[in-house]
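User: Fold this, then the next.

Assistant: Folding the first:
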Amino acid sequence: MTELRQVDLNLLVALDALIDECSVTRAAERTGVTQPAMSHTLKRLRALFDDPLLVRAGGGMALTPRAEALAVELRAGLHTLQRVLEPPGFDPASARRTFRLASPDLFDALALPRVLARMRAEAPGVDLVVSHTTGDGLEPALASGDLDLAVLARAQLEAPGALVGKTLFHDTFSCFLRRDHPALEGGALTVQGWLGAPHALVSPRGGGGGPVDAVLDRMGLARRVALRLPHFTAAPRIIADSDLILMAPTALARTLSDRDGLVVLPAPVSLPSHAVMMTWHPRFSGDPGHVWLRNVIAGATEGMEAEPQAGVDWPG
């Protein structure tokens, strides 16, 4: 076993860059060294791990299985060392730190203005990077520290594994459609009219059904999904100029104005409520900065709770 005192820790920083970039040139630029110096470092790393780590593939370079296996643990270890070197505690007013959040676009529209207002007031030196990462690869990213926090609906977190979480609020599903939609009868929406109309479905991955379709399947019913969209925030304008019906979290109504020309109605069949939750890796549960971020996110969602529809649970 190689003893830690025999290892130049700068080699591990370089390895992290090489694994992330899959390029000696880009890794050199990222770490502020020359390309020949990074090539020499790669030779030292190959000797240390007794593995090529990066090999030529096509027009570029690819990781060996050994390098792929090192990636998550290496990144997590470097994040831990970085926190060891930071002053203890977390003072928002003087902190210089970047947090990384994965969240759906609807949550961003609803909560990020409040989050940023509090950050501006309490922590002007703290930055936020937001991505729309879904369940795939979520646990490794949170474990390594590439992500600090993820916000998602409970049904998306199919295999929470080692992650922990906190429910922010519950929401229901509602029908969004234009005011003069032909399926409306006296301002109401029947099951026949609802199922007979074409539907829009927000599907970040572009395939499969949603929780609404799972409930309909159990009832022996089905709807026609004529349009799939990757984001909620683009949907209202599209729905307003079409005969499509959008089934979406009721919270979407908070982003609308009278100018959007839409009506928001309960679904004509009983549909499940869902929990919007934030999740993180327990390694960071006691980190003072992480605790502050979680409090900011929780505070930004106060008042968003909706009355859950009784009698229907999530499929499975």
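Now the next one, as you asked:
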Amino acid sequence: MNAQAVNRIFVPGDMLAVALGADELVAALTVEAKKRNISIEIIRNGSRGICWAETLLEVQTDAGRVAYGNVTAADVTSLFDANFLSGGDHEKTLGLTQEIPWLAKQERVIFNRCGIIDPLSLNEFIETGGFAGLGKALQMSGSQIVEQILQSGLRGRGGAGFPTGIKWQTVLDTAGAIKHIVCNADEGDSGTFSDRLIMEGDPFRLIEGMVIAGIATGAEHGVIYLRSEYLFAVKMMKEAINIALAGNWVGANIQGSGKTFDLRVFVGAGSYVCGEETALLESLEGKPGIVRSKPPLPAIEGLFGQPTVINNVITLCAVPDILAKGGDWHASLGIGRSTGTLPFQLAGNVAKGGLVELPFGSSLQKLLHDFTEGTKDGSNIRAVQVGGPLGAYLPPELFDTLTGYEEFTAIGAGIGHGGIVIYGQSTNMREQAKYAFEFCAEESCGKCTPCRIGSIRGYELLATEQIDKSLIDDLCEVMIAGSACAMGAMTPIPVQSLMRYWPEDFEDKS
């Protein structure tokens, strides 16, 4: 028996697991192993996204990795008694990790190594295919790289779904002594956590995607704009950048290619509106996070007035595999103009929440049926909100909608960042509509009147006993047409969808 193999223990070091006691679990494992004179090695891997089973403990056995779910420090003694180091049966046993239905039903591309490797092991990253895409990119011209991205059909995963190749082509074709790659890691939508999981569990993937983007467009400067609440991700990305720099995958003369790409992390100050690309640029320049007027587009005049690519985390993390396997491979996944995969995040009133990566084209019904096991309180699902706090609420009769950009647009909704928040029968939809206006009022940058004042007036209208629906609709039209950015223009989406599909919750209270 290979003692070293069976004695390797994996305990996630991500924010959720730590919040649930992962550090205390590691300490208890260490003490108990020493007490029993057993040699163990504990690897703090990233999360596999099985949030309903955290803390997820895994052990390496001859048959593969065996998982134990919802493990706490109080379980350690009984785990050793059950011979868990060899995969022994225990009340917390989930079986072979790769055979857990939650994972087996997925098609993981972007998250293929998340939760499997040591996030800061450069060797493990390379052994599992890391930097293969960058290796190819270093042998290609910028236009050749952009052509692969165009062929892939990759679209921005931050919400708007804009073709990534067109954005890169614009920056490549725009003259500028200095160009920038900006990663929007200001993940602020409710129910979303894919950016956090990938940065905490596979940070070199994001670095690889950003370096490829730099080579493709002629940009030598990159910055990751990371939200202040993600302390673990900030620490992980900074450490990973230093390791990549020492390995010559970032910095000057990358792998002897003559290419240069400097990369740094910038921590935001907690403003939701800084997820909007121009407000983000203002923040990076040391100014208040207020949206800019467009044109000019950031691809023409972005950070410090220089040509700038702004992509979100998951967009950039999709890039390495496109270069490694080809644009046509990526285009073969998905449906219509929605190519590749998307990590859907299931949250809210849900029995089994977490991250599910699938190609575009699955239905909402399939996602809910195959992965959630219904609501946490046992009631029927009354609604799901897709795309964050400014996304539409959808009733069960629309759950057959396929997950594609055009398919969601056709029903007045958007996929956004892939967040799906589930609501049970006890949810008051009028209160949800009030929350949408309240959220906009709280997070508005204040630049434009429709957003700044319209959100407050909307909340007031919904707080009255007798609602004037036509007046609310008029207000929504003004916000859509007159707001300076998506913050105000999209706030009416949840409000109008709620009034359309659940009119009974908006009847006179008197």
